[in-house]
Inverse folding.
């Protein structure tokens, strides 16, 4: 068979896949560009799990008219001009690949102005410029990516469920929110709104997101490390020169902790060009980060907090489980009403205050005002709450709830709406129980064990039956 060169448009679609596999990858590249442009505010809007619509608006340096015309050409970049620059990188980008790749698999609009007076809008489809005109726009750049992968339908088929894609998106955004505390981030993800105001320092931002932490700092002549050990269980995160990366050796060294680690090294001592998405880095042989870190952890024995496993998933369990659990004891068969059993177990935990606060990866913001007494009730029952003008931000929940979504939390808050007194909590407790039961991950065996260890396991607090017991002799007689 004869060989021949692939047409450019085919090459572009294939190679886009190295950098852009899913909507979260698009968002990552666009945020990085906004940060590279020295923005102080980044607004991110996502609709339809990121496939139909992504918009990122920044107030950064903007793009010049000429550059806008060439911006989707492969390897066109303003950030690197000499080979040596590669070893002194201060920007996220340097290969001029992202906009090229994104535009070749979507319909993209860029609006930009370098001064806030003159601005231009360029429209691209499958990487081709299809429209260019003047526009009124503020200083900075807005990029809209529509119909992602419309021309590579097979890529769409490789995407996970919308929940998983949304989770990836949130996770990516959170990386930059954590590393760039001086930037205000405003998010609107499937119509849920969230603002991270510019913080004075990193500690402050981490606290608003994750709550309490312990911090350890290590400085050597070659590098510095800021290690945040979190009380809540979240994804561990590693940053090298503020770039989120994956590093198995570091993960292994820190495996007993819930952590966020920021490592800073001289740019000449780290190669970030070893992975197409720049997810992995390679440290130079001159610096011995791994050994130093290992030593540091073993010397600081006190920081070894044992992690507790919490998984925030949005899957409701109870609905797809059988209504009854059966088990055989020595003389009888027990038939247990699953939902009532779970309610009883969690109710008991609530009453005896057997819960801790677990922080949410992504806080939920509500535009409501609650009386002080209600806020107090929330805190007493293990919620972590922040109040801002007309908003309430919930960033932690009691750990008897394994998971919850925005609507679940909204229902719980509504149950508190008019409550002015700490004793008026029945509807509120019920709300918590509903969610705890809905997402419970207790196995049948655990339910049986926990239920039978309670006082009076046979009935719930409304005197409804939980366990029905059949004597084995009675069954014997039936045969
Ligand atoms: P790279 O970031 O590797 O240079 P990209 O394809 O991501 O490549 O971007 C190409 C160029 O477009 C950048 O070098 C930069 O000059 C310009 N650019 C992209 N996004 C922005 C933005 N939000 N603000 C200002 N300039 C931008
Ligand atoms: Mg870039």
């Amino acid at each position: 068979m004869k060989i021949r060169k692939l047409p450019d448009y085919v090459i572009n679609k294939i190679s886009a896949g190295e950098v852009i596999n899913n909507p979260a990858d698009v968002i990552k590249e666009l945020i990085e560009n906004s940060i590279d442009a020295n923005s102080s505010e980044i607004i991110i809007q996502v609709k339809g799990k990121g496939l139909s619509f992504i918009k990122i608006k920044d107030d950064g340096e903007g793009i010049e008219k000429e550059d806008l015309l060439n911006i989707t050409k492969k390897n066109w970049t303003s950030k690197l001009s000499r080979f040596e620059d590669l070893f002194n990188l201060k920007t996220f980008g340097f290969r001029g690949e992202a906009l090229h790749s994104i535009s070749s698999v979507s319909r993209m609009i860029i609006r930009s102005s370098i001064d806030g007076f003159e601005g231009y809008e360029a429209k691209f489809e499958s990487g081709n410029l299809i429209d260019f005109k003047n526009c009124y726009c503020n200083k900075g750049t807005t990029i809209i990516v529509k119909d992602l992968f419309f021309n590579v339908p097979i890529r769409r088929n490789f995407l996970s469920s919308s929940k998983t894609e949304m989770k990836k998106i949130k996770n990516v955004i959170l990386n930059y929110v954590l590393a760039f505390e001086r930037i205000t981030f405003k998010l609107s993800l499937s119509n849920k709104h969230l603002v991270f105001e510019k913080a004075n320092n990193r500690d402050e931002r981490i606290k608003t997101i994750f709550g309490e932490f312990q911090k350890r700092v290590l400085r050597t002549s070659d590098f510095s490390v800021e290690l945040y050990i979190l009380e809540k269980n979240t994804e561990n995160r590693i940053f090298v020169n503020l770039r989120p990366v994956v590093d198995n050796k570091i993960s292994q060294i820190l495996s007993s902790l819930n952590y966020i680690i920021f490592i800073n090294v001289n740019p000449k001592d780290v190669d970030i060009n070893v992975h197409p998405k720049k997810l992995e880095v390679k440290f130079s042989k001159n610096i011995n980060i791994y050994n130093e870190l290992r030593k540091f952890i073993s010397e600081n024995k006190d920081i070894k907090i044992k992690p507790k496993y919490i998984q925030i998933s949005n899957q409701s369990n109870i609905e797809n489980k059988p209504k009854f659990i059966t088990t055989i004891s020595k003389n009888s068969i027990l038939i247990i009403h699953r939902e009532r059993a779970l309610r009883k177990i969690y109710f008991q935990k609530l009453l005896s205050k057997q819960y801790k606060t677990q922080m949410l990866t992504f806080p939920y913001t509500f535009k409501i005002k609650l009386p002080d007494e209600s806020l107090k009730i929330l805190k007493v029952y293990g919620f972590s709450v922040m109040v801002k003008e007309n908003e309430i931000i919930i960033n932690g929940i009691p750990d008897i709830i394994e998971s919850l979504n925005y609507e679940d939390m909204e229902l719980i808050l509504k149950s508190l709406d008019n409550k002015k007194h700490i004793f008026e909590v029945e509807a509120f407790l019920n709300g918590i129980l509903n969610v705890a039961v809905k997402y419970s991950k207790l196995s049948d065996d655990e339910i049986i064990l926990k239920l039978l260890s309670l006082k009076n396991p046979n009935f719930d607090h409304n005197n409804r039956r939980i366990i029905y017991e059949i004597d084995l002799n009675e069954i014997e007689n039936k045969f």
Residues 306-315 have pLDDT under 50 and may be disordered. The first strand starts at residue 41 and ends at 47. The CA atoms of residues 116 and 139 lie 4 Å apart. Residues 8-196 form a domain with the Heat Shock Protein 90 fold (CATH 3.30.565.10).
